[in-house]
């Protein structure tokens, strides 16, 4: 944890700033706290592997005891939820120690102890491409002059990655699952600042610590929704420009897979007591992205439209520039990580010759049901020149391949992601 994160950290329960308990075991180098105990006016929290653990669930208490006993590796195991599964813990620890280990290999080593889901396909799925476009439009607008972003309940940091070049200091990724934010910092969003905290408790940050606070594809699973939104607005309070955004939250008026406990569009709107939000149906935003933009945040979706939507995006901002049409950024000419053929494609046909043919296929019927809208930008079949594949693999986009990147047949994945 960098000092810039320590400075905005607050106890979620008493709200006071924290001190490093110097009489307890700690590992500090320069501006980074790697291991230690943080004290507030009401309790203490461990820092494990550079990640502050700002809740009091049993694994956090166990990890705090282990840090105090000068056992940082065991504290990490406790936070990984593996202290009672030594064989799994040993496999995970061995992989972590290897610089060549991939995200996929570590997720697979966790097995049933980490919900990995469809992470391999995440960077090209319809939910992600709308979330990414919203982050670039809304976050890009309010962070243009500097300022920090936070991605709350951001899991393994797939959208945090979209914030990396927008946020100064680097974005904070907050999630209850320690293993997910740990993996995000190493693989998905390298350089982000992870914080382990509970979305159902007050957020462990100072008022006005951020210009952009967001939560994507998670809010329907938060029980304390009213507290969450008031706290989200507290995080950007006093900043100008600033925005708070909840994207991809499900809609009580419709059914969706992995439904959670969603509210109605008005139910969501009413949570924003101090800053009136704009509520968008995500299908309209998805259409904007598939058409190549602009992402039109000047639109006003009526009640009928919103009631029929499976997922909603809610944006609150004092900055009128947010609620305008936003041109989409051109597809990257250099990858942030590495270009790969979208893992939804399988090679199909003979391996010889100057071209390769790929066919779209889904990992399961469940996946197709939830994310099948990707057919609107992913062709069923595609033929790619081997020379183009080689150029993409080395990090450049030949003229003939620009459209493959634009359509997400070729995706920019984190390094060592394991595709
Ligand atoms: Zn406290």
How would the blueprint of this fold be written?
Blueprint: H1 3-6, E1 19-20, E2 27-29, E3 32-39, E4 44-48, E5 51-52, H2 58-68, H3 72-80, H4 86-97, H5 103-110, H6 126-142, E6 149-152, H7 160-163, E7 172-175, H8 178-188, E8 193-196, E9 212-216, H9 225-236, E10 243-250, H10 265-271, E11 278-281, H11 282-290, E12 295-296, H12 303-307, E13 311-317, E14 325-326, E15 338-341, E16 345-347, E17 355-360, H13 365-371, E18 381-385, H14 386-393, H15 402-406, E19 410-413
Parallel strand pairs: 6-7, 6-9, 7-8, 9-10
Antiparallel strand pairs: 1-3, 2-3, 3-4, 4-5, 10-13, 11-13, 12-14, 15-19, 16-17, 17-18
Helix pairs in contact: 2-3, 4-5, 6-11
The protein binds zinc ion.
Provide structural commentary.
With 419 residues, this protein is α+β, with helices and mostly antiparallel strands. Helix content is 31%, strand content 20%. The protein has 15 helices and 19 strands. It has helices spanning 3-6, 58-68, 72-80, 86-97, 103-110, 126-142, 160-163, 178-188, 225-236, 265-271, 282-290, 303-307, 365-371, 386-393, 402-406; strands at 19-20, 27-29, 32-39, 44-48, 51-52, 149-152, 172-175, 193-196, 212-216, 243-250, 278-281, 295-296, 311-317, 325-326, 338-341, 345-347, 355-360, 381-385, 410-413. The longest helix has 17 residues, at 126-142. The mean pLDDT is 96. Bound molecules: zinc ion. The site of zinc ion (ZN) has 8 residues, from loops.
Features:
seven-stranded mixed sheet, 419 residues, five-stranded antiparallel sheet, 20% strand, binds zinc ion, alpha+beta, globular
